[in-house]
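Now for today's protein:

——
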Amino acid sequence: MRWRDIDLDAGRLAIRRSVGVVKTKGAGERLVEGPTKTGRSRVVDLDSGTVAALRAYRAARGLLALDLVRDSALVLSNFDGTHRHPERFSRHFAGHIARARRALGEERLPVIRLHDLRHTHATLLLADGVPVKVVSERLGHASATITLTVYQHVHPGMGREAADRFAALLEG
């Protein structure tokens, strides 16, 4: 994601590309920027708290170097402007979680991976009644069927609520 992909005034983010690790036997690995998994870009609306955090982050990065906040600059780059390695980024997140668990007490915070935040996001939205199609678009799934399959665990308890709501509609 580059700064040009974020419209902070409109509170929108365009996801146009992804970064993957390409491993070559005998030559190590390199990061390659390419299209999204589906090959399609998508736009995700951002809440005001996220917009404020991105504004503060951009301001702080700008104090380090103006090259880090140019429109073409990566939002989550290394200090030299290059891509952060996804596995190192995930390990860094895991380190923060481990420290938080020690500070709070391990029973108060489960072990979570960075990718689990994506699942939490989707689960909370679906459980709150956000339409599957909207959640699917936010996640970048090729179809809502994928979202329904992956997050079907959210729906069992919702069946009773749907039945009760339908009964109320019939009575109303």
User: Anything to note?
Assistant: The CA atoms of residues 126 and 132 lie 7 Å apart. The chain has a mean pLDDT of 90.
